[in-house]
Amino acid sequence: MAEASFHIEVVTPERLIYSGDAVSVTAPGRLGYFGILANHLPMVVELGLGELTIKQTDGKTVQMALVGGFFEVSANKAIVLADGGELAAEIDLNRARAAADKARKALEDLENHSIDRELMRAALARAETRLKVAQDAGRA
Amino acid sequence: MALSLRAVRRKIRTSKNLQKIFSAMKMVAAARLRRVQERVTAGKPYALKMKQLVEAVGPFTIGVEHPLLTKRPTRENPCVVVIAGDKGLCGSFNNNALRKAHTFIDELGGKSVQLITIGKKAGIYFRKRGYRVVESFNQIGVNSPFSEVQKIADAMTEIYVSGKADEVWVGYTEFITTMRQKPHVVKFLPIEPPGQAAKIEISITGRPVTDKEYIFEPGAAELLKGLLPKFVRNQVYKFLLESMASEQGARMTAMSNATDSAGDLISDLTMVANKARQASITKELLEVVSGAEALAAEA
User: DSSP character for B67?
Assistant: First the structure.
């Protein structure tokens, strides 16, 4: 018998990233990662930076990097409103590495707790997430 | 007296060159319009879900205080955001948008009103007339990334939250069709509490009665705090796209008209040129014939 599944859509202000049926989803909540199965109670969760993993009905998994947003599930439909996001397959490894290096270097140069430093730290976290997602998806 | 044949031919050549430019500009505008429309379509799911989400969370947040929701007792310091284009040659698009905003601003308090202008034309228009332009954004085009929109949205929120303005209005142009665009000025901040306008029963437990019982993580109030700025950003994005589509639509129509007028001009001028040519041939013939006759008479 087929496993219970639910529909999930991932959208950003600029485009629809993913739409399909999933068996399970793991998402980066702002207060920690959480998992969702079919027929979940209606729920709204604020998302943080991290990796979204979708286990599809065909057994394959899809990974993507997310930069904050909201997750809503109701009536067996999940919607991810992401501020930004990229599928693992779309991530530009060279760009992500370059961004990580640039941020790391800038962090070394900036000593104090300036706003720039916080911005750089966020940039580094974003770049590292992208790299990690790409790695998890088997692209090194 | 009619123009000389050479002058007319030169005019025809100029008109033909202009016609080529107009039709090229028309095609560029058409391509840009298509791109804006693609972005509108691509952004629709997000905008729709965002609205649904705000409406779903809204009923649970009655009584929640949020700086973007609080109405100020005074309306002394309004701020108007005017969206127009960077360039001209788009028919009456800039003029209509600016005139609409101008009238509105004068009713609101004239030169004391703080203005944020988007697009070079808007900045120039209001600066020249001595209005209080506090901030300007230029070069927002069809290819601008979402982060640019974010900057504008942040500036708009900042001026309200910091207390420099008690109300924020937005003047933008609604895209109806390529031929029709309509300028509007709408209230932007404070936000009308989303989803709270509807009548909602409150159960004895103090929670609203809806068909969906949501689990919120973090709590509804906390969620709303994160949700509202994004809602605002998305609204701004919508206004900008709407105005961009209008601008390109207006330019397309204007350039299409210009191409047609150039075509009319060319055919009129060709007629004049042909008549002039015919006249000069007739004149020469007459001269030859009368010369020959004069010779024959002498002989």
Answer: T
Are B17 and B77 within one domain? no
Q: Does A83 touch chain B (CB under 8 A)?
A: yes
Chain-centre distance for alpha carbon A116: 24
Alpha carbons B146 and B39: distance in angstroms, whole number: 11
Q: What is the pLDDT of residue B222?
A: 82
pLDDT (tens digit per residue) in A84-125: 888 888 888 888 888 888 888 887 776 666 667 777 778 888
Q: What ipTM does this complex have?
A: 0.76
Residues B191 and B202: their CA atoms lie apart, in Å, by 23
User: CB distance from A1 to chain B under 8 Å?
Assistant: no
* Residue B1 reports pLDDT greater than 50: no
Same domain (yes/no): B76, B150? yes
Structural domain range at position B269: 5-21+254-294
Fold designation for A6-88: ATP Synthase; domain 1 (2.60.15)
CA distances from A30 to A48, A67, A100, B40 (A): 4, 11, 22, 29
Q: Residue B14 has which token pair?
A: 């100029």
Cβ distance A31 to B217 less than 8 Å, yes or no, reads yes
Q: Is B79 a catalytic residue?
A: no
B107-157 pLDDT, tens per residue? 988 888 999 999 999 999 999 999 999 999 998 887 788 888 888 999 998
Domain presence at residue B299: no
**Domain presence at residue B206:** yes
What are the chain A neighbours of B218 within 8 Å (beta carbons)? 30-31, 46
B contact residues 141-160, partner A, Cβ 8 Å cutoff? 146, 149
Predicted confidence at residue B197, as pLDDT, reads: 47
In chain A, domain spans = 6-88, 92-136
